[in-house]
Design a protein that fits this description.
Helix content is about 35%, strand content about 25%. It is of the alpha+beta class. Strand 12 and strand 13 form a beta hairpin. The structure holds adenosine-5'-diphosphate and magnesium ion. The site of magnesium ion has 6 residues, from strand 8.
Length: about 350
């Protein structure tokens, strides 16, 4: 019998990854960046370095096929991977797609999935170059890997924010989480009463944010045109709280975020407060899957960005001792806790 058994739920996803990272040695000088960022960085010998990232989606954990159309799922599986290349300030070029399929799925279902995958490949100008197909006992598993490229001086890491840098967020936050709550509510009520009246009307924006997220490659291209290289960057897959903590702790700094500056869509406000009685700010901080970008800029670059209508300036980097803090609308200062998604919880 093994005398020590550490439950994964006690160390959490990030704790587990950290254990793996600590025991990993790199043997090749071409491994420029290994575990710990949105993508690995690999030497090519040329001016552009290779960026590599992978993500896996599992039925019943990451998606529920009772309300997720397969085509949307295919699109999302690609988009969330592209988002990790965007978070490195790189340009994606190739993807591979691996599938675990049970006999529940017919050819037509797989074709639907690939229609979404191909639509996303067209949208982001990436080529599907391979994958793997295996059987799975019950559900559907999709794993996507993506390759991108960027010059060394363009690559942006999580750990390079500087004191006083301005914290920026693209788009709006919390909508994807609310979209999920709406779809979940619909599913529950449908189970109780199949003749129910649908409550999806007018909620299109939130549902789209959940079912068909986009990677912010548009912003990456705009930053290039403006000649701005962020000082640090990460994509927001687990909510602002968890991601700002990654940027701050990995950069050896603290951060201050102003609640009133956090971008939240009008419909998110409405649905959070009226339908679910939750704070819109909580959705933005701890909801997930918005796939917006969180980045920091040198204050000297602020002039060039300040009128951008899809970038919000939510705070600044501060001394590590001051912590990662939210200044609420009421003027209170509260520490931002990393909740993210608790993968191993009960
Ligand atoms: P993201 O949310 O951007 O996909 P993750 O939090 O999943 O990033 O991963 C953080 C880092 O840990 C990445 O560098 C990722 O490649 C690495 N990582 C995650 N899981 C594992 C694993 N099982 N083995 C090795 N590295 C991992
Ligand atoms: Mg990421």
């Amino acid at each position: 019998m093994n005398p020590t058994r550490t439950e994964l739920e006690n160390i959490g996803e990030f704790g587990l990854i950290d254990r793996i990272r600590q025991k990993t040695n790199y043997q090749n000088a071409s491994t420029l960046k290994g575990i710990g960022d949105d993508a690995a960085v690999i030497e090519t010998g040329g001016e552009e370095k290779l960026l590599l990232s992978t993500d896996m989606l599992i039925e019943k954990i990451h998606f529920d096929l009772t309300y997720v159309p397969l085509k949307h799922l295919g699109y999302k599986a690609i988009a969330v991977n592209i988002s990790d290349i965007a978070a490195m300030n790189g340009i994606p070029q190739q993807v591979t797609v691996s599938l675990g399929l049970s006999n529940r799925f017919a050819l037509e279902a797989v074709e639907e999935l690939y229609a979404g995958i191909r639509a996303a490949c067209a949208q982001y100008k990436v080529d599907l170059v391979g994958g793997d197909t295996v059987s799975s006992p019950t559900g559907l598993v999709i794993s996507v890997s993506v390759v991108g490229f960027a010059k060394m001086e363009q690559i942006v890491y999580r750990n390079s924010a500087k004191m006083g840098d301005i914290i920026c967020v693209t788009g709006d936050l919390g909508a994807a989480y609310l979209g999920l709550q709406i779809l979940e509510r619909e599913r529950q009520e449908f189970l109780g009463n199949p003749n129910m009246k649908s409550q999806l009307e007018g909620k299109d924006y939130l549902i789209r944010r959940q079912l068909k997220p986009e990677a912010r490659m548009d912003i990456i291209h705009e930053l290039r045109e403006l000649g701005i290289v962020p000082t640090s960057m990460i994509d927001i897959s687990d909510g602002l709280a968890s991601e700002i903590r990654h940027l701050a702790t990995q950069s050896g700094l603290g951060a201050k975020i102003y609640e009133e500056k956090i971008p939240i869509h009008r419909l998110s406000y409405e649905v959070a407060t009226q339908d679910f009685a939750i704070q819109p700010t909580t959705c933005a901080l701890n909801g997930g899957e918005d796939y917006e970008l969180l980045f920091t800029i040198n204050p000297n670059d602020f002039e060039k960005l300040k009128n951008h209508d899809d970038i919000s300036f939510v705070g600044y980097m501060q001394e590590a001792e001051k912590g990662v803090i939210l200044q609420t609308r009421g003027g209170n200062e509260v520490p931002i806790q990393a909740q993210g998604w608790v993968h191993f919880g009960k």
